């Protein structure tokens, strides 16, 4: 498949089956529970709101690509190796530099042909919790994403065969691949992608003052930041999209930027999703300027002002878009103070890893699934071949039901609130259903 740059204006469509495996959970020191604070404890109401923002204590690794230290180290070496580019001048770290928060700190990186790429480089941190990758969500996994820039003629301009030949010619890689993949030590695009993805899953953002506040330290953030959090979760409505500990719903929204880039709509061929791009995390956001998918806004104050007065009006605007016309100048200052509290304290070492198995998900035999609050009413169902699931949208927002497998390829199009989708299953197997707009919505269907 020919890969177009994430920064290009005409991205290709991904039709491969999304990787939706159960996760093997790896305990990471950087994510360990924070020590109890000697400061004033939080009141019950505040603690209840903050419960949605608690950092996880584990990092998910998929069953199809489990964690190993050898694989992380191989992935690290590959990530920084310019051999992955056609002319030997660029590595993954060229755009995802550690000193710049695993991004490049510019609005748009320069392409190999001297032009500017179409989209900003996102950070590689916290990708272990991602759902779909690239700004338009065309890659279903970190493994798939890893080889996208390698093949892009504007970014690294390398063929997969050429990449393999170049790595095979470097003697040090033979032993490294044998250690990381003892059952199949051959250098292949698949093993390269798995190693890089494993390393990327190890890139976890650090503990922040906000995290310490969530853990119970009432003095961890300023009074202004606390007021800003109230604005963020209340009047401004930012939390509609920037939710959870990562401050992202991993979904795709048109936020009214003046751009001809069709984003997600071009990928899933749904015009109602034109100009929609993935919600970025707000972790480390104060250190990750410039902002937006095209790097068009230089400051956090400018971002807030966009939502207050700069939105381009069009039919595809997200229903979750915050309306903050009434925010005062003080509200904005407090909101920005809160966003600064999401920058990490000095990095915590992540050198103690322990594997644990995820708990099994109970399966239901219902044939009716309800969508509400960006969730399916069930996460796992089992049915018989020849039966169909009815998926009813009881939400206030539209959804897009998708399935990609050898036996079934399904795209519901734009499913409005109140509409239902009938999803027939004629052959036995395991199917992974997800929402193409809100990809955290996932449903496993076992058909017998």
Automatic annotation (TrEMBL):
Main localization category: periplasm
Xref: PROSITE patterns: CYTC (PS51007)
GO CC, alphabetical: periplasmic space
Domain of life: Bacteria
A GO molecular function held by the record: metal ion binding
Record has Nucleotide-binding as a keyword: no
Domain Cytochrome c stretches: 223-343
This protein's pathway: One-carbon metabolism; methylamine degradation
Subcellular location: Periplasm
UniProt keyword list: Electron transport, Heme, Iron, Metal-binding, Oxidoreductase, Periplasm, Signal, Transport
Record PANTHER family: BLL6722 PROTEIN (PTHR30600:SF10), CYTOCHROME C PEROXIDASE-RELATED (PTHR30600)
Functional description taken from the UniProt entry: Involved in methylamine metabolism. Essential for the maturation of the beta subunit of MADH, presumably via a step in the biosynthesis of tryptophan tryptophylquinone (TTQ), the cofactor of MADH.
Protein name: Methylamine utilization protein MauG
Organism: Skermanella aerolata
Classification of source organism: Bacteria, Pseudomonadati, Pseudomonadota, Alphaproteobacteria, Rhodospirillales
């Amino acid at each position: 498949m020919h890969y177009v740059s994430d920064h290009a204006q005409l991205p290709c469509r991904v039709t491969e089956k999304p990787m939706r495996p159960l996760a093997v959970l790896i305990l990471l020191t950087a994510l360990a529970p924070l020590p109890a604070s000697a400061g004033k404890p939080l009141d019950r109401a505040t603690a209840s709101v903050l419960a949605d923002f608690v950092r996880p204590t584990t990092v998910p690794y998929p069953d199809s690509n489990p964690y190993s230290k050898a694989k992380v180290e191989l992935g690290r070496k590959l990530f920084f190796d310019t051999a992955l580019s056609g002319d030997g001048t660029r590595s993954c770290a060229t755009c995802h530099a550690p000193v710049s928060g695993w991004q490049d700190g510019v609005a748009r990186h320069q392409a190999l042909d001297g032009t500017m790429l179409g989209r900003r480089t996102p950070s590689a941190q916290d990708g272990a919790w991602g759902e779909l990758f690239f700004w338009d969500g065309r890659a279903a996994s970190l493994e798939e994403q890893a080889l996208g820039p390698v093949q892009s003629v504007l970014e690294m301009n390398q063929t997969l065969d050429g990449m393999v030949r170049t790595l095979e010619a470097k003697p040090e890689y033979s032993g490294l691949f044998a250690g990381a993949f003892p059952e199949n030590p051959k250098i292949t695009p698949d093993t390269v992608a798995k190693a890089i993805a494993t390393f990327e899953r190890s890139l976890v953002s650090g503990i922040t003052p906000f995290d310490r506040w969530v853990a119970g330290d009432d003095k961890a953030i300023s009074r202004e930041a606390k007021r800003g959090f109230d604005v963020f979760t209340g009047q401004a409505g930012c939390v509609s999209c920037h939710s959870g500990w990562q401050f992202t719903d991993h979904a795709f929204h048109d936020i009214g930027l003046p751009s001809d880039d069709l984003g997600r709509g071009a990928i899933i061929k749904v015009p109602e999703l034109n100009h929609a791009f993935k919600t970025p995390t707000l972790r480390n956001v104060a250190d990750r300027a410039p902002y937006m998918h095209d790097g068009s806004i230089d400051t956090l104050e400018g971002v807030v002002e966009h939502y207050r007065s700069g939105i381009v009006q069009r039919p595809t605007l997200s229903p979750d878009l915050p309306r903050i016309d009434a925010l005062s100048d003080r509200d904005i200052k407090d909101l920005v103070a809160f966003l600064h509290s999401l920058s990490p304290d000095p990095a915590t070492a992540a050198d103690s890893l322990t594997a644990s198995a995820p708990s099994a998900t109970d399966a239901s035999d219902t044939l009716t699934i309800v969508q509400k609050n960006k969730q399916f009413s069930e996460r796992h169902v089992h049915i018989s071949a020849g039966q169909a699931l009815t998926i009813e949208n009881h939400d206030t927002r539209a959804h897009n039901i998708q399935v990609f497998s050898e036996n079934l390829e399904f795209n519901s199009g734009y499913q409005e609130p109140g509409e239902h989708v009938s999803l027939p299953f004629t052959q036995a197997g395991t199917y992974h259903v997800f929402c193409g707009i809100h990809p955290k919505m996932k449903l496993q269907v076992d058909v017998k």
